[in-house]
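Entry type: protein chain
Record version: 2
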Amino acid sequence: VAVVTGFAAFVTWIDQFWDLDDYSLTTTPFTLIGVAMAIFLGFRNNESYDRFWEGRTLWGRMVNVSRSFTRQTLTLIVSTSPTEEPRVQELRHRLVKSTIAYVDAFRHHLRDSDPVEDLKKYLPAEERSTVLSHANVPVAILQDMGEQIHAAWQAGFIHDFHVPVLEGSLTEMTGVQGGCERIKSTPIPFTYNVLIHRVVAVYCLALPFGLIDTVGMLTPVVVCLISYAFFGLDAIGDDVEQPFELDDNDLPLDAISRTIEIDLLQLIGEPDVPPPIEPVHGVLL
């Protein structure tokens, strides 16, 4: 915006000394191009926001399914005798903590960051070493959770009718992860973005030649306002296109993960529950 406004000021200053009538344009081409450009920008921004909102919807499903899976774990995995209750209780808590570890690993997977420190809190060393050897750590954790459920079923802790219920929750988690991975790995076509960037830049740079005869000395002001609007719309599309990163306007995955962690730990009666994540300077990560 500053460059375009400075260029408009330069053109206006030149016009005061040399008549630029021979190089001026009417407003008609700018009106026609502006309408088309507004449509393209609106379409691209709608597509970007749809990706952002779908990502938020998927993470909302993750919150729900993690709570449902925890409830199912605590109510459908039962001991067959009082002597087995401690073993069953340990299994329940292990599955719930594996769910928290899965959510943390999933967040890191989307952000291409290292999940080791978060996994140390909820996965045993041997299991942690095994899942970290996989390229897709969240999927490895889900596989381990499935094996735990299978072992519990073989031990008689889960009724035959309840196994599909627990497996359905794991399948739902897999579906949420697949949807988020699709958003992350399939950006809006690069050539489409480049075309919009170039058209907006050329349009704003050419604006002084279409306004100088109409608004005179106010040309830089008008160009500044118009370019701010177009460059701003262009930037908004770029900003929300990838909703899982760490920009100010991206999804607050840390806060959502912490909410899941708090809810699940309280359901199993853990005494040490971390506090919710608070915004920093108005930004919630």
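Comment: The mean pLDDT is 91.
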